[in-house]
Amino acid sequence: MNRRDFLTATTVASAGLALQGCNESNRQAIDYSKHPQKSENAKHVNINRNKKTTIKLATSWPAHFPIMGTGVEKFAQRVVDISGGTLEIKLYPKNTLVPALAVFDACSSGQIDAFHSGPYYWKGKNSAFSLYSGIPFGFTAEEINSWMLFGGGLELWREQYGKYNLHPFMGGNTNIQMGGWFRKPINSLEDMQGLKMRIPGLGGEVFSKMGVNPILLPAGEIYTSLERGVIDATEWVGPALDIQMRFYKVAPYYYSGWHEPGSILELTFNKEMWSKLAFEHQSMIEVAANELNSNMTYEFHSKNIHALQELQDLKIELLQYPQDVVNAGKTALTKVLAELSETNKDFATVNESIQKYLKLSKQWSDVSLGYFLNER
Ligand code: CA
Fold this sequence. Notes:
By secondary structure, this protein is of the alpha/beta class. 49% of the residues lie in helices and 13% in strands. β6 (196-198), α7 (201-209) and β7 (213-215) form a beta-alpha-beta unit. It starts with a helix and ends with a helix. It binds calcium ion.
């Protein structure tokens, strides 16, 4: 045995000892249960290097759309690289193969193999799906990742999507979103009454109960509607994407938000197709999906901090909602969650899981991050 072989053998032996020394809590932390299940007949590397597997993936975003579109493009390239070219992800941006909001059905039926979008778009299929994006006053990006991976969220999501022949992964997070752009300042809840605001999802339902008139508009019509006063306010995402929409020119009052504190984006596969993929390919996709999920979250943070600086240079007004608006939001949220739990058992199950985890998570976040952010 030469020196190099000896060193390798020693390292492997030490690693083996270290693994044997793993206690139960370490094993749970690694959480192998979330990884692809290796089938009995997959005991050896079974990729056929002479055969390329192609996955057709459609997105709800235009080609090269900042952060979301480009993030998926990096994911696709990563999969090609780590599979040695045996697995190719063919990307179809918004409306090139299927309409932006038809990706769920197209994937469910097998017309496409996968999609990148947001779970809150599918609340018409099952109101519980909106919960996988997060809830107003709910999880931060870090907390929702924790609930998904270690709090049972991903199991529930996969079980419920499984009924639609779909197998989801987390595919990024917008990080905390801003409350939105207003043509006039909001001094009290009174100023929100009858206000026409573009705000979708659970946030829209909460705002509706607070007296706001939520409007749904295609992205391309928001700016002109705001400029002409057809709407009084709009939320979008955060500084990074908002600045490109130039809302600051026509609605200069920019409010911090609580309606989407950490919205998850999804990378979802046709379940039948997924189950037929080689185990190695499944594992590679899982690794690349985890990278996509974390990178997109951090890229949002990075682009937001720079864009906020630019917005401040433009002298916009950065504001917080008045306390009575926040209180009304919390009351409205309780009502919305209770009503939807009443009418949909799936919603009740997911909401219960979220509330249980959120209660504990809040305790920890409040005494750690909460205090720290106030002191820093
Ligand atoms: Ca939003």
